[in-house]
Design brief:
227 residues, alpha/beta, 5 strands, 5-stranded parallel β-sheet
């Protein structure tokens, strides 16, 4: 087999694998988005209303981090070796964005593995910021099965303030105010990146601002999913 034939064969095999995954995940609905966008709240309400199994990716982060090897998750390994100031105070928000392991897609394969182990009936609603557009897109049987909630900075701050978690990470550093500024800026840039990534992939987004109520958001997501 020459190199060209081998390349075509490998590509065909990869395409077949993705097609098989897409078929096995056709019962899955995906809600991604920025931090503080209301993903968890919306997902809980929709899952309860429509009898869907809810899979929250935040809930399995600790388990997935424990299952990631340094070879598979080098950014996670570097993150683990840092103290709190190294993570949130001493680096720029740009560096924090580029090197944060979940933003790099590390551990996404473990999400897919978990979803494949769930029964196909009832359907599954998966939510979390770890659902990166370029990783989810190839797995969609229908474009309407996924969307991303993109909060404005004002909505994000109001959301985390209402949870009482605004200072949860920052207060563990030597400079909580700087750490919080860095975190908020990193999350703002992550939301902007999601907006940039979803557009060329023709994936659905809902921009979430302070004028929207929880009911508004649930209604828009439900309609987008055609439930």
């Amino acid at each position: 087999m020459n190199d060209a034939t081998r390349t075509r064969s490998e590509h065909h095999g990869q395409t077949a694998d993705i097609a098989a995954l897409r078929a096995r995940l056709r019962h899955v609905y995906w809600i991604g988005g920025g931090t503080g966008a209301g993903k968890s709240t919306v997902a809980r309400r929709i899952a309860a209303r429509h009898g869907l199994h809810l899979y929250a990716t935040d809930d399995v982060m600790s388990d997935h981090a424990g299952r990631c090897t340094p070879e598979d998750c080098p950014f996670l390994s570097e993150f683990r070796a840092m103290d709190m100031d190294q993570r949130w105070v001493n680096r720029s928000p740009e560096t924090m964005l580029e090197t944060f392991h979940w933003f790099r897609g590390e551990g996404f394969g473990l999400i897919v593995d978990d979803l494949l182990r769930l029964p196909s009936e009832p359907g599954v609603l998966v939510e979390g910021f770890r659902l990166l557009p370029h990783l989810v897109k190839p797995l969609l049987a229908r474009p309407s099965r996924a969307l991303w909630l993109l909060p404005t900075p004002e909505f994000r701050r109001a959301a985390i303030d209402s949870r009482g978690s605004t200072w949860a990470i920052a207060r563990k550093t030597s400079d909580p105010e700087k750490a919080l500024r860095n975190l908020l800026e990193r999350d703002r840039m992550f939301t902007d990146r999601l907006h940039e990534q979803t557009k060329p992939l023709q994936l659905r987004v809902v921009e979430v601002d302070t004028t929207m109520t929880e009911d508004d958001l649930v209604r828009q997501v439900t309609q987008a999913f055609e439930l």
